[in-house]
Amino acid sequence: MKKSFIIIITFLVSTLSFSQNKFGNPEVDPIQIQKTFTDWSVYQSKKIMLSRDFTALDAESKEISKEAF
Asked: What is the pTM of this model?
């Protein structure tokens, strides 16, 4: 019984310590997009739609209000 309890606690602690970012990875490499203005312009016109619902993030990937964005 004591061994089972230790295994469960260890599992829970390891699960919490290795949690992933809820936003996942970027769809494309940000450095690659920003190499030239043309690359950025094409990406912006085809992929970025601020009229749709989105989660606004600051430079440190922390959630912020849409007004602050």
From this structure: 0.43
Return the residue matching tokens 């450095």: 31
| CA distances in angstroms from 40 to 11, 19, 30, 35, 67, listed in the order given | 43, 31, 9, 8, 23
Pairwise CA distance, residues 20 & 59, whole Å:
18
How many Å apart are CA 40 and CA 69, to the nearest integer?
19
DSSP 11-31: HHHHHHHTPPPTT-S-SS-HH
Binning pLDDT at 50, 70 and 90, where does residue 15 land? low
